Amino acid sequence: MTLDIDFVRAQFPAFSEPSLAGIAHFENAGGSYACGPVIERLTRFYRQRKVQPYGPADPTRLAGEEMDEARTRMAAILGVAADELSFGPSTTANTYVLAQAFRQWMKPGEAIVVTNQDHEANSGPWRRLAAEGIEIREWKMDPETGHLDPETLEDILDEKVRLVCFPHCSNVVGEINSVTEITAVAHAAGAFVCVDGVSYAPHGFADVGALGPDIYLFSAYKTYGPHQGLMVIRRALGELLPNQGHHFNGGSLYKRFTPAGPDHAQIAACAGMADYVDLLADHHGAPAGKPSKRGTFVHDAMRAREIELLQPLLDAVKARNAVRLIGPSDARVRAPTVTLALNGSPEAVNAELARRGIMAGAGDFYAGRALAGVGADADKGVLRLSFTHYTAQDDIDRLLNALDDLL
Predict the structure, then answer these.
(1) Could you give phi then psi for residue 73, rounded to 5 degrees?
(2) Which end of the chain is more exposed for a tag (fewer CB within 10 A), N or C?
(3) Cα 261 to Cα 236: distance, rounded to the nearest angstrom
(4) Residue 176 DSSP class
(5) Interatomic CA distance for residues 67 and 43, integer angstroms
(6) Hey, is 384 helix, strand or coil?
(7) In whole angstroms, what separates CA 44 from the centre of its chain?
(8) Is the dihedral of CA 87, 89, 94, 97 positive or negative?
(9) Which domains does the chain have, with CATH numbers?
(10) How confident is the model at residue 262 (pLDDT cuts 50, 70, 90)?
């Protein structure tokens, strides 16, 4: 199925915004444009519903209903129960809260596995538990390829391991990890699984229920929505961990791990992400049925579009002597997040791209451990070029021409 790119781009006000005309967005890994339904819902909430939700009067009743709609519909797309999805201020904050729950639940000497492929948000909070007597074991990626091999995970699992944390894909390596396979290995050893989906979710929402992890986290501001963190915690684990919210909310699964007051408007606006999935599904002929199946239909269409655009970019950079492509060169096994270690200055190249109307990124992207793990200079940083399904072919052509000149 071919994605109708004109229809897709029509759903994003940014592409008709005069101030953004002539700018090609290649730093989507840092944040995507918001889709129209999200902006409309957020605006409506602030205009009509900016009151304490869940009361009997119409404005407050409707505010609560819109918040519940966002959780119910997004959970259905993710293939989980509505109360297994929580909203928090960010994925970093959500992970920190989870780490505190595990700190209280685990005993000294028990272990958590982390990787050196992760963004700091899904690594640092767990690593800090070493100060509480929790053993931290690092599952290392291949220093040449950046690949996380499930067989090497088996070597560090034993009866002490309570949790295995890894990314669906790294924000600098880009390779898509086999969540189902890795989860099965961890579960067979008696460990729970926490997956950081921040860098994967912009390329299609995962059917978390089918994949099988116990925790799955991602950020709405990278999936065309507001600045919220979405966190799936499956019931068996969520009811086992200590409550981190107000004591009177301990009986509500989706409130147990949200100690801060929720951002009512942004939660309600997250229903716009479900609206966008439905718009794409209906326009491209997806049959009616389970939201998770329709979400998978849209996911697959997004990925097919991205693979088509990504392979020429990988081909253009992988053979250059002055450039090292980090991660695989096969578009079918990686997200369209292309990280380049350069002989020269990444910041200088990024500045020149900006002068040409190309918005990219340079730095370590809070992934210093991952860059060091593949032998890149984390202090120097890297150039990162990232896009999504809404990127136009003309933008890819502009980028390739600019890289020809600059690299």
Answers:
(1) -75, -40
(2) N
(3) 25
(4) B
(5) 14
(6) strand
(7) 26
(8) negative
(9) 5-34+293-406 (3.90.1150.10), 42-274 (3.40.640.10)
(10) confident
As a whole number of angstroms, the distance between CA 50 and CA 123 comes to 36
3-state secondary structure 288-301: CCCHHHHHHHHHHH
Q: Are residues 186 and 153 in contact, defined by beta-carbon separation less than 8 angstroms?
A: yes
Contact, 21 vs 402, CB < 8 A?
no
Place of tokens 């326009």: 283
pTM, two decimals, is 0.97
- DSSP-assigned states of every residue in 128-174: GGGGGT-EEEEEPPPTTT----HHHHHTT--TTEEEEEEESB-TTT-
Q: Is the pLDDT of residue 260 over 90?
A: no
Q: Which pair of structure tokens corresponds to residue 276?
A: 């966008």
Distances (CA, A) of 40 to 1, 18, 123, 255, 304: 29, 19, 35, 26, 28
Give the whole-angstrom CA distance, residue 50 versus residue 160. Answer: 48
From residue 399, alpha-carbon distances to 9, 171, 313, 332, 379 in Å are 19, 20, 9, 20, 25
